[in-house]
Amino acid sequence: MASEITVTLLRFAFLALLWLFVFMVMAASRRDLGIGRNLRAARSADAGAQPGAQAGAPTSSPTPVAPPPARASQLVITDGAQAGAVMRLGDEPITMGRANDIEVSLEDDYASGHHARLFPQGSRWFLEDLGSTNGTFVNGNRLTRATVLEVGTDFRVGRTTMQLRA
Amino acid sequence: MALSLRQKNDAPRSRYIVGFILSAVAVALCPISMWLIDSEVIAGGDTRWLTATLTLGIGALVLYLVIQFKARFADPLILPLVLALNSIGLAMIYRIDLTTSAQAGASQVMWTGVAMAAAAIVLLFLKDHRALRRVTYISLAVSLFLLLLPLIPGLGLEINGARIWISIAGRTFQPGEIAKITLAIFFAGYLSTHRDLILLAGKRVGPFRLPRFKDLAPMFIAWLLSIGVLVFQRDLGSAILFFGLFMAMIFLATGQVTWLVLGFLFVAAGGFLAYNFISHVYYRISSWVHAFDPDVYNQVVGGSGQIVQGVFGLASGGLFGRGWGNGRPDLVSYSNSDMIIASLGEELGLIGLGALLMMYMLLVSRGFRASLGVRDAFGKLLAAGLSAVMVVQLFVVIGGVTRLIPLTGLTTPFMSAGGSSLLANWVIVALLIAISHSARAPQLVDTFEPEESSDTIDLDSYENDGATSVISRITDHNNADHQGGAVRE
After folding, report:
1. Mutation to test the B interface, candidates A3, A43, A109, A142, most B Cβ within 10 Å
2. Domain of residue A4, residue span
3. According to the UniProt entry, where is the signal peptide (chain A) (predicted)?
4. Which burial class, exposed, middle or buried, applies to A135 when counting CB atoms under 10 A from its CB (0-12, 13-18, 19+)?
5. B349 reaches A (C-beta below 8 A)
6. Does B319 touch chain A (CB under 8 A)?
7. Best mean pLDDT range from A107-111, B113-117, B187-191
8. Is A53 within the bounds of a domain?
9. Higher-confidence position of B114 and B447
C-alpha cells in the first residue's frame, strides 16, 4: 500500500486531470466563440487574393487600383427599401442584418438577424457571411468564406444591395 | 496547445488531432480511475479494468474512424466529452461492484460496446439527418408503441413499482429511453413544418396570441402521454422528461412565452391531480419535503432514506472528495444507477463533480452549437431538442439527488448503470455528430436564382403587415429547402 502522502497527491492529481481535460476541451472550442476568427480571415484573404488577381484585368473597376492609400470610408445602400442611405465606416468591423442592436440594421425581411459582417484588414474591407439563411452575394456569387470587397463592387444582403465608396 | 497546433497546420487537420488526443485522454481516465480505486486488485491479476479499457478504446477508435470517413466536418469535441463521462461511469460502477453485492460492471461494459457500435451504425447509414424528417409520423407511432410495450402482460416487468421495463430472454430493457429519441424526431419534424401556422393563427388578446385549439392538439398529446406514463407506468421521471422535451422544443420553434405559460399551467394542473390521486407521486413529494423526518426516513415504501444517505454522502465528500475507493456508496441504495452522482460526489468531491458537470455543459453546448450552425429548421430543432432532453434529464436526476426537486428515478446520461440509457444516449450523440457535420461542412451552393424564389410569393403587397416577418420566414424556409435540394445534388 502506497504511503498516505502519495495517495493524497494522487487524489488531487486526478481532480487536476479532470479539470485539465475540461480546459483542453474549452481551449479547443475557443475558435467557435469567434476569438480565432481574424486568423481564419487572414488565411482566406491570402487564398482569395490569387483568383482576384487573375480576374483583376478584365473586370471594370471604376477606380484604378493603384496602391490604395486608405480603406473605403463609406457604405452606400444602392438598392432596396433604404436605398440612398450612406454610412460612414471607421476602423471597427460592422455587422449588418435585420437585428436592431447592430451597426447596420436593415429593414429587409429577406435578411437574417445577423446576416453578414464587414471587417477591415490592412487597407481593405472583407465581407463575411454569418451563416445567413439567404446568403450574401458578391457579383452574383454566394459567399462561402470571408472575401475581399473592392470599392464600387455591389453586394447583396437579402434584397438590399450595397457597395463601398472611397 | 490547441492554438499552437492550429497555427502550424491547416485548421481542420489540427482539430482532428486535438480530437484524437482528447479522446485518448478520455479513454485513459477509465484505467487511471480503476487503478486509483484499488491498485492491489489490479496487481492481483483482476482483468476487469483491461476489458473495460479495451472496449472503450476500440469503440472510440472505430467511432473516430467512422467520423473521419462519414462525417469529416463533425464537431471533434463531442466524442471525447462523451468518452470521458462513460469512462468515469464505468470506473464508478466497477468500484461499487468491488465493495457491494452489485454486479453491474460486466454488463455495463458490454452495453458500452453495444451502444458505441449502434452509434457507429447510425453514423454509417444516416447520410443526411434530413432523411429523418420523412419518418416524422412513423416515429410518433414508434414512440407510442415503445411506451406501450411495458404495459403488455408477460412482456412488461415491474421493478420497484414502476412498470417501464420489458424483459426479453432474461435481459431487461427500458423502451422509454429509445422513445425520447423518436419523440424528439417527431416534435422536430412536426414543429418545423407547422411552426408558421402555430405562430400565425389564433386570436390576439392584448400582447399575446392565443393558439388555436387545433394547434394545441400536439401539446395535448404530449401532456396526455406524460400523464399516461405517470398513471400507468408510475414513472414520474420519464413523465417530466417527455413533457420537458416538448416544452423546450415548442419554445425553441416559436420563441413565444405564451406556450411556456400554458405548459406550466398544464404541469401545475397535472401535478396537483397527481399529488392528490397518485400515491407514488405523493410519496415522492413527501419524502422530498420531509426528508429528515424520522417517520418518513424509516418508511418502508417511499421513504427518504435513499435521498438522505445520498446527501450525507455528498456532504462527507466535501470540497475535494474522499478519493477513489474511500467513500461509502454501499450505504445508498441504487448507488450505481439513480444515485451515481451522489457516489461520485462523495469520492471526487465538489471539485470533481464540478468537472463532470462542466463536461456535460460543454457537451450540451456543442449540441446547441450544431443546432445554431445547421441550416435546415428540422436539423436545428432536432439538435436542440436532443440537447434539451439531456439537460432536462440531468436537471431532474441531479436536482433530485441534491434534494433541489423531488427525486425521481432517472439515469444520469452515460454514467449510470443501465444498458438502455447508455444505448439511447450514444445514439443521441451519433445524431448530434451527424448534424454537426452538416452544420460545419462548407456549403456547396455557389449560384442562386433570386427571381425564382421571389416569384412564388409576392411580398411587396404585404410589406407593412404585421405578418410580414412570419411570411418571410416561410419563404426563408422555401429557400432553405431549395438550397437543400441543391446541396444533395
Report:
1. A109
2. 1-29
3. none
4. buried
5. yes
6. no
7. B113-117
8. no
9. B114
